[in-house]
Write a structure and sequence with these properties.
5-stranded mixed β-sheet, alpha+beta
Length: 99
């Protein structure tokens, strides 16, 4: 019985690890935390009904959280972060678009 319950619940689990350095954490309905080593930032990812089921707002990737909030996130770095966030949704079989 526990096996069947575990298999059922497995459908709803989210894989948080993207790679050896990066991971994602859902904070609220539309807010996520991206973590890269000891740096972290929050970003807006809107939940939609239908396909795609998420919209990643790349413009919300602005600053690292303290104590790294004085470090600038370049456009190149923002693109790298967006790629990793896309990979996170792909790993979790979630359709998305980037704006």
């Amino acid at each position: 019985m526990f096996d069947s319950v575990n298999r059922f619940l497995k459908k709803f689990r989210t894989i948080k690890v993207i790679d050896e350095l990066s991971s994602m954490e859902r904070l609220g309905r539309d807010e996520y935390k991206y973590i890269e080593g000891d740096h972290a930032l929050t970003l807006q990812v809107e939940m939609l009904s239908g396909t795609p089921s998420r919209v990643i707002y790349s413009r919300t990737i602005k600053n690292w959280m303290p104590p790294y909030d004085k470090e600038k996130i370049t456009e190149e770095k923002r693109k790298e972060i967006v790629k990793k966030i896309c990979k996170y949704f792909e790993i979790n079989n979630t359709s998305y678009t980037v704006k």
